[in-house]
Amino acid sequence: MSETANYGLQLTDSDQETFLEWREKLNGQNNSNMQKIDKALGEKADHSVAVSATLLAKAWDGLDAPFTQTLSIEGIHEASKQNGQIYVSQEATFEQRDIARCAMLAVIGQTEGKLTIAADGEMPEQDIPVTIILLD
Predict the structure, then answer these.
(1) Rounded mean pLDDT, 22-42
(2) In which region does residue 33 sit, left (phi positive, over 0), alpha (psi from -120 to 50) or beta (all else)?
(3) Of 20, 101, 122, 132, which is most buried, counting CB atoms within 10 Å of its CB?
(4) Beta bridge partners of 128
(5) Cβ–Cβ < 8 Å for 31, 83
(6) pLDDT surpassing 90 at residue 126
(7) What average pLDDT score do residues 1-18 get?
(8) Which pLDDT score, from 0 to 100, does residue 82 have?
(9) What's the distance, CA 10 to chain centroid?
(10) CA-to-CA distance for 30 and 5, rounded, in angstroms?
(11) In what order do the strands lie in the sheet with 49-55?
(12) Exposure b/e, 71-90, CB count within 10 A at least 16 = b
């Protein structure tokens, strides 16, 4: 029987396998694909880290959109080694959220210790608190 490269999920194309054998491999109690998937996802969640930062109104570069700003983020690695997401923080006020929407924020670069954000719309005139979720 063959397995997938990353998670060792069981693969079969055998026409001799019974439905019960196939079901046990898919979602049985002993080393089934569902157990492997659950373990892999659980481990990913255990390694995620939330980091708070602030996009400062005075730190935007550029005269015209897109404006850019680079945040120093401890624990962030280059994009090819780590995934992550950035959100306007839950603590942001209505006005800060509205400014962030008008700014049309986007992550445009990630290097060791740094995350570069673009404001493709309006330049934010207030600081915007953000949360970065780092996934390993």
Answers:
(1) 82
(2) alpha
(3) 132
(4) 55
(5) no
(6) yes
(7) 79
(8) 76
(9) 27
(10) 20
(11) 49-55, 128-135, 83-88
(12) bebeebbeeeeeebebebbe
DSSP letter for each residue of 29-58:
SSS-HHHHHHHHHHHHHHT-EEEEEEE-GG
How confident is the model over 19-42, as a mean pLDDT? 82
Sign of the alpha-carbon dihedral angle for 54, 56, 61, 65: positive
What's the full length of the chain, in residues?
136
Measured from the Cβ of residue 33, the count of other Cβ atoms closer than 10 Å reads 18
CB atoms within 10 A of CB 43: 10
pLDDT at 60 over 90: yes
Q: How many CA atoms lie within 13 A of 60 on its CB side?
A: 21
- Confirm if 42 and 120 have CB atoms less than 8 A apart: no
Question: Considering the chain, what is the average pLDDT of its residues?
Answer: 87
Higher-pLDDT residue of 81 and 123 is 123
